[in-house]
Write a structure and sequence with these properties.
By secondary structure, the chain is mostly helical. Helices cover 88% and strands 0% of the residues. It contains 9 helices and no strands. Helix 4 runs antiparallel to helix 6. The chain is elongated, with a radius of gyration of 22 Å. The termini are far apart.
Length: 274
């Protein structure tokens, strides 16, 4: 093969190798998910798990410790949305529609999505770094030697905690996102407070809120699976932990956004109402 052909084909070869690695990783994560579901659903009945000793501290670390930053981010997102859209709505004489737009945007999309993005960076990175350090220090191997399944002992509690706490944080994001929009709309654009609250109440729909909570459960599962998979496959000592932590956060963000798109298409086609 000539040098020119190698230059032309080299990017395609790199893309092919990357796709093969992604498919291989997806298969490994699927196997990890199956094992995690087994230890989550069946494991407690085998007497080989002690979730009460691990799940509640994890829920505290994931939920309570992340509450402030999640609320701050969604509060600011709600405020930014009003700043960016109120003037445009006012140009067309539709400023009264701002509360409805903010409410639907926060509840359907931005509340759960921003919460998941924050947790992917904060919690997902911590999962990968913590479990990855256990792998390179051979603590996971020691668990296997003692007859303790690492998935049931390390991954399943994190999976349960994430699937519980991400929807809880998303519910707070509904409130704080709309509060940010309310403060800017009333304080800077002279929208009547009572009318703003009434518009938000009219826009809120139980289908939207439940859909956002369900989506958040999947977000939590995605973050946990990606983080734990990258932790358990760490190679190369401390440098490998750092590399896999970076990969974990990036892959989590991509997976969250792809899933959000697919879920949004499904809901828009069958469930959402204008």
């Amino acid at each position: 093969m000539s040098g020119f052909a190698k230059v032309i084909l080299s990017p395609f070869a790199d893309i092919g190798r990357e796709l093969l690695l992604r498919v291989k990783s997806l298969g490994a994560m699927t196997n990890l998910l199956i094992d995690t579901l087994y230890w989550t659903v069946i494991g407690p009945f085998t007497g080989k798990t002690r979730f009460r000793e691990t799940v509640f501290p994890l829920m505290y670390q994931i939920g309570i410790k992340s509450l402030f930053i999640c609320c701050l981010v969604t509060l600011l997102v709600g405020a930014i949305l009003v700043f960016q859209t109120a003037d445009q709505f006012e140009r067309f004489g539709a400023k009264t529609l701002v509360p409805t737009m903010i409410c639907l945007s926060i509840v359907r999309e931005l509340g759960p999505l921003m919460t998941a993005i924050v947790l992917a960076g904060r919690v997902g990175a911590a999962f990968t770094a913590g479990l990855g350090s256990m792998v390179i220090n051979e603590e996971v191997l020691a668990l296997r030697t003692m007859g303790i399944n690492p998935v049931g002992y390390l991954v399943a509690p994190r999976f349960i905690a994430m699937c519980i706490m991400v929807p809880c944080l998303s519910i707070y994001s509904y409130l704080l996102g709309n509060l940010g929009g309310f403060l800017v709309g009333v304080g800077f654009y002279n929208l009547p407070a009572a009318a703003y609250i009434n518009k938000v109440g009219d826009a809120l729909d139980m289908t939207d809120m439940v859909a956002g909570a369900i989506k958040s459960v999947f977000f939590g599962a995605i973050i946990c699976m990606v983080a734990c998979h990258n932790a358990l496959t760490v190679r190369g000592g401390p440098e490998g932990v750092g590399r896999n932590t970076m990969i974990s956060v990036v892959n989590s963000l991509v997976a969250i956004i792809v899933f959000d798109l697919l879920f949004g298409l499904l809901m828009a086609r069958h469930f959402y109402t204008v």
